[in-house]
UniProtKB/TrEMBL annotation:
This is Putative non-specific serine/threonine protein kinase. GO terms for molecular function: protein serine/threonine kinase activity. Keywords: Kinase, Serine/threonine-protein kinase, Transferase. It comes from Lupinus albus (White lupine). The lineage of its organism: Eukaryota, Viridiplantae, Streptophyta, Embryophyta, Tracheophyta. It comes from the Eukaryota.
Length: 59
């Protein structure tokens, strides 16, 4: 069996293709609802950014 890496662009685009997304989606009854206490959330300095995203240090 061939081992595949899931950190390459080709692999991620394969996973995110429309026919493959359905297998990753959970059904409504399998989804759980959750909340986060925003007063406990720490967002530190931005350490990376691209055209459509920003990544912050969190603890």
């Amino acid at each position: 069996m061939e081992r595949r890496r899931f950190d390459s662009l080709e692999s991620w685009s394969m996973i995110l293709e429309s026919e493959n997304v359905e297998t990753w989606e959970a059904s409504k009854e399998d989804q759980e609802e959750w909340t986060a206490d925003l007063s406990q959330l720490f967002i530190g300095n931005k350490f990376a950014s691209e055209a459509h995203s920003r990544i912050y240090l969190g603890k």
